[in-house]
Design a protein that fits this description.
Blueprint lengths: L11 H5 L1 H20 L25 E2 L14 H5 L5 E7 L7 E9 L8 H5 L5 E2 L16 E2 L1 H4 L12 H4 L7 H10 L4
Antiparallel strand pairs: 1-4, 2-3, 3-5
Bound molecules: iron/sulfur cluster (2 copies).
Length: 191
């Protein structure tokens, strides 16, 4: 059933408009004066020389997570590319030599010009193999090919650039938990 939304009852001064316009202008002018007199607190960046400090949960450029031996955690299950509404993930799979893993990606590409940065691929991944926490939200290039990122680009990250509390990142080569993770990996108890 349709819901009837009552029209607001305007007072006499609201119907005159001039008072409301003056109140609006007062707010605008107050902001302008505050910004012009406190220029150092002005919330702008000297872009592009200055990069924005994006929060870690900002949906930025993708990365592929790594196992302790440096190989991708991805098992080429295609769940991310199936969930992707922009159809911009291209995966070519091959058989994995590891008997615990059925497949691995021989090629993994994302066309960032088609990507809508919805994060569905991250949500769909069953093994935490793809993330969008690189904080690389500003991308520039002078040809379309530069925006197609491949497996090597997505695996080019270092654990030191990620928080210590991000255990999965710290288990990758170079991370604070790498030694014990590699031991567990070799013994077959790593997840
Ligand atoms: S963020 Fe969305 S559009 Fe981009 S690759 Fe992932 S699922 Fe596709
Ligand atoms: S990134 Fe995750 S969802 Fe996508 S193919 Fe690899 S394992 Fe599957």
């Amino acid at each position: 059933m349709a819901k009837i939304v009552p029209r607001p009852q305007l007072t006499f001064w609201e119907q005159v408009y001039f008072v409301e316009i003056f109140k609006g202008l007062t707010v605008t002018i107050a902001h302008a004066v505050r910004n012009l007199t406190g220029i150092t607190k002005f919330p702008t960046l000297n872009y592009p020389e200055e990069a924005p400090n994006l929060p870690r949960d900002y949906r930025a450029r993708h990365r592929l997570m790594k196992r302790p031996d440096g190989t991708p955690r991805c098992v080429a299950c295609f769940m991310c590319s199936t969930a992707c509404p922009a159809r911009c993930i291209n995966i070519i799979a091959e058989e994995s030599p590891d008997k615990h893993i059925e497949k691995r990606p021989v090629r993994f590409e994302i066309d960032l010009l088609l990507c809508v940065f919805c994060g569905y691929c991250v949500e769909a991944c069953p093994c935490d193999a793809i993330r969008m926490d690189t904080r690389e939200g500003v991308m520039a290039g002078d040809n379309r090919a530069e925006f197609i990122i491949n497996k090597e680009t997505m695996m080019d990250w270092k654990p030191k650039d990620y928080p210590a509390a991000d255990l999965q990142s710290q288990k990758a080569p170079g991370g604070s938990l790498h030694a014990e993770a590699l031991e567990a990996f070799k013994s077959g108890t790593y997840h």
